[in-house]
Amino acid sequence: MKAQPYQCIEDLTGKDIKKPAPNKELPLSPRQIAILIFSVLLLIAILIGQPIVSIPAGHLAVVDFFGYVPKNTISAGLHVKTLYSTIHSFSLKTQLMELTLNVPTNEGLIVELDVSILHRIHPNMVRDLYLTVGNNYKEVVLLPEVTSTVRSLTASVSSKTLYSASRDELSTNIKDHLNGKLAVRGIEIEQALLRKVVLPKLVTTAIEQKLMAEQDSQRMEFVLMKERQEAERKRIEAQGISDFQSIVSQGISDALLEWKGIEATERLANSANAKIVVVGNSKNGLPLILGEGSHTLSGKTATPGETKAEAGKPEGAA
């Protein structure tokens, strides 16, 4: 084997160095192009069909595949559905419907009434409700039934029932009637609340006047009761005074009165303020206090100069 002669690097610089040729991409075959196009179209179709669906909590969904509705419903959660099928979700929660109605009463009055209906759907009746009514069951079934029932029941009661304690009984009757009509649809009425009653102006004025008259009547009853109590008090007081006088009169004798008169005469005679003490000319005459001037006693004129003894003498005495 012959040895190759050594070449310097400088010798190689002058020579052309061949670079590797770049790799050329091979063109796709018609079959590969068809498969690629089909894959892209399939991916687009799957995305448009929305195979994954999410059902919120407290809801139940019905699957509608071009008019075919399976018996099984979809509960809350994440599910894979048939492509291009439509999902109709129904809330199982308690829902509120508020409406204002002009309802009649048995007096022929038109009363404005605010009604609140609490309702929910029975889970076993969701598919039937969708097949017989649809998603807009509130507008198609619930609202007309509530309006008709409320007006029918209020027409048989008076306007006073709508704002008195009897309104609770009316609410119960409305709920029972609605449940009897809507139970076959799978709709349950939990409560029917009568929130606000607006009576005609004429009726409101009459009610206010009636209440004022009742208040005046109660006030007069109170006054009469008070007067009767006062009359009873005075009667008892008069009876007590009469009993006292009767008891006292039975214990007072003529001798006692004469003795009291003598004591009074002595006290008057000893009083520094007494001027003239005149003793009556009768046997048990009571003393009299006379001021200045002349005074007549038993047909005799007594002057200030007379003494007790002179004034007390009988007319025939010297």
UniProtKB/TrEMBL annotation:
Subcellular location: Mitochondrion inner membrane
Pfam families: Band_7
Membrane topology according to the record: Single-pass type II membrane protein
Protein name: Prohibitin
Family: Belongs to the prohibitin family.
Subunit structure comment from the entry: Component of a prohibitin multimeric complex in mitochondrial membranes.
InterPro entries documented for this protein: Band_7 (IPR001107), Band_7/SPFH_dom_sf (IPR036013), Prohibitin (IPR000163)
Keywords recorded for this protein, A-Z: Membrane, Mitochondrion, Mitochondrion inner membrane, Transmembrane, Transmembrane helix
